[in-house]
Fold:
Amino acid sequence: MENSTETDLAIVAAGAAGLAAAVAAAQLGLAVEVFEKNATTGGTANRGMGPLGIESRHTRARLFRPTRDEAFEAFMTYTHWRVDANLVRAFLNKSGDTIHWLESLGVTFAEPATYFSGSYPTWHLLQPENGPPGPGGGATMMKILTQRALELGVKIHLNSPVSRLITEDGKVTGLVISENGAAPHSVRARSVVIATGGFGNSEAMIRDHTGFELDKDIFPFKIPGVTGDGIRMAWEAGAQKTEMGMELVYGMPDPLTVPPALHEACRQPHLMVNLLGKRFMDEAVMPNVTFTANAIAQQKDKTAFLLFDSGILEEMKRDFDTRNRVFPKERFDDAEATIDAYLASGKGNFYRAPTLAALSAQTGIDGETLSNVVETYNGYCAQGYDAQFNKERRYLRPLTGGVWYAARHFPSAYGSAGGIKINENAEVVGKDWRPIPGLYAAGTDACSIYGDSYPFIFPGTSMGFALNTGRIAAETAHAYISGAI
Ligand SMILES: Cc1cc2nc3c(=O)[nH]c(=O)nc-3n(C[C@H](O)[C@H](O)[C@H](O)COP(=O)(O)OP(=O)(O)OC[C@H]3O[C@@H](n4cnc5c(N)ncnc54)[C@H](O)[C@@H]3O)c2cc1C
Structure:
């Protein structure tokens, strides 16, 4: 690596938060070096579709709500005020300006969107280099941020995992890195931002801090490199811990390998049961993937099955009840061929059987209860009223047989949540409740604003938090270095 004697700001990682911090700090005139564990920049953000923005020019032009005040109130009500209100306010207030800042760097947004009916249109879908908005928009944004950082003189060291922070007299003054497998060496820095993306791919931290077991009862996206390193380093340097959890969604394991139309067919609001054969939720809630994951996580083996039959399959060939911007399929095209190919692939978690009893045997669902539940559910469909959970009438379709299908769902997660306590200036807070001088954290490592559930009513919160706290960390580090604080 280039021999860095001392830099103003050393940034641990080149994901959404790290690169936002790098560009913002370089624009303020700081000398910046970024150390990234992987061979490429972008981290989890390469997979994302867009960040949250409140009162951006796009939402204002369309007279979309919420305003900043409305968003703040709704956010705090959602989280029951169990989170840092000053941090939430700082993030939401800056988020519209961050959309404009990204545009000034060359990032293009397609439109602000909701995620599901009832969520707010805060999701600023990124326009990818090629094709429509979708998975891949994030990679375009991260490429642009990388280019701008380099143009501004930021030194980005790839294949350079940071292993620990250096502290002197209670201040953070550098870090230890190893570049391309070489022996570790230290880098002096007047300030450090930690932004290593949380612990969504750490078996040990998921087990120790969330109650889930990786690849047994939770199947997150497992982004390479995101193993809680920054959280551990900050704790070792005296940072306070926050509550920790997973940014829950649900799906068949490894959903990106399931054909999109089959994936959507298996997430339509038909009949959902647990291994006991019982219904446990109003299936109309399923578009809220976090609420659905919460409900599944309460069931035996954290497992659920979505059931349909050949009659419902025929209807899905014409139209889906609910749509999704991530897998924007309108109907189940080539249904039988897609199902045949998927079953032949042996990937599992999708079942087809000639009778309900055979489906129970294949899936392990209690057959007697399931048979009774289907009969009761069909009664609700006939009377047009779901006496159990009051599901919307338009989703009440009986299952009468022909061919039976089931998809097995588990909790999944975009990543983790929480770890390092920061304040509204992105300063890392020590055990004495004072900021640790010279140390800042941003993004998932420090994202403790969700309460008990990812606030999907504000789509884009996760990447939005990363970008905004990255910018805030850079501004605070600049103030610290220039002696303003
Ligand atoms: C499939 C998918 C879709 C998503 N879609 C959206 C969306 O549309 N909107 C939204 O708001 N959010 C979305 N998210 C979440 C969003 O991408 C993340 O919240 C965001 O990227 C977090 O940013 P970050 O900077 O904290 O971490 P990351 O972007 O994950 O970056 C962390 C970086 O740290 C590096 N690193 C780790 N350890 C070290 C170390 N020791 N030394 C150096 N580097 C290290 C990693 O290699 C990685 O590059 C999505 C996530 C997934 C998985």
Q: What stands out?
A: The chain has two domains: 3-244+418-481, 249-412. The domain at 249-412 is CATH 3.90.700.10 (Flavocytochrome C3; Chain A, domain 1). The chain is about 35% helix and 20% strand. The mean pLDDT is 96.
